[in-house]
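User: Fold this; tokens only.

Assistant: Input:
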Amino acid sequence: MYETMSDHNLPEELVQFRDNVRRFVDRELRPHELQVAREGRLPDNVLDAITAKAGAAGFWMLDAPEELGGADLGLLPLAIFWEELARTTAIPSRDHTMFGPNIGSILLSLEGEMRERYLMPVVRGEKTACFAQTEPDAGSDAAAIRTRAVRTASGWKINGVKRYITKAATADFAQVMAVTDPEKGARGGISCFIVEMNTPGVTVGPAEATMMGDAPYELVFEDVEIPAENLVGAEGYGFNLAQRYLNHGRIRHGAHSCGAMARCLDMTVAYVKQRKTFGATLSERQGVQWMLADGYTRLHATRLMVHDAAAKLDRGQDARVETFMAKITGVENGFKVIDDCLQLHGGMGLTHETPLERYWRDLRSFRITEGPTEVLRTTMARSIIKNAGL
């Protein structure tokens, strides 16, 4: 494999960490790719066995605080970890719970009894949570949320509909974003609540199958009454609670794109060197050579952006614009490179015999989910204009 970022640019411990993760992916995950392509997921017994091996190898709760049993890694080592995981399609691109529960900033902010009731059971694997923000008329424009929470004598009453909520059918509770002050809107008028899924008035709608192979759900709240203490943080502080992990999400997307590009490019180089058409291998044709050259250039540029943004955040610097660049460049470069790789594989690229079509679907979806690139560009431009450049 062609390494586009030399080892001397990374501390030795991160090089060793990367190599260890890569060996784990190659040994424990990639052999199951064809089975996952045909059956949709790893069998439970295989998943449990690999999860146990991940813990034994030290790849458990890498982003969680040490006091919770996590490794509390910075964003640069996490970016390296995410890139290596993306070199396989044996696990879902959006679900890394094989390597520990997804805790997030909302649960980490809980204190006292709420911490014991909701955070710690998730850490111990006794409960699972879902995040409910997206609505039929509020996707990328989160400020357009209509779900409403109104104070009552004993707490809050919630009404509204959420859409595309992952794991809603199996979660024990939801982290729900709702409007508490319509006049303030996104500027202090949206709050976060913990809602147990067995609360009267909570209904999980039918699953909506997607091109990525997952099936999120609709979630309906009809006069759902919850106690006052289930407000997370201060009233109107909902969006602020999620800010810490927005940067993490953009870095993760960019890193995933790097891993996907690297895997597909390496597969394609091997393929074009042996595939002959009209008396010559594909690797001898200039058009193919240029596609590969452009692909590795896109990979190199994206990896540099991801590592730069992650390192700046680890140093405590403001790297919000850099994280926008990392996601925008990553998902757009990733889709372009994988589309070219699939094209060069011809009919083989359309089958489940290679992971190319799965990568193609995943990278195409990343241009929409968790912030469409058009919206990110607009937000990024506003920041640039406000601060007179970079």
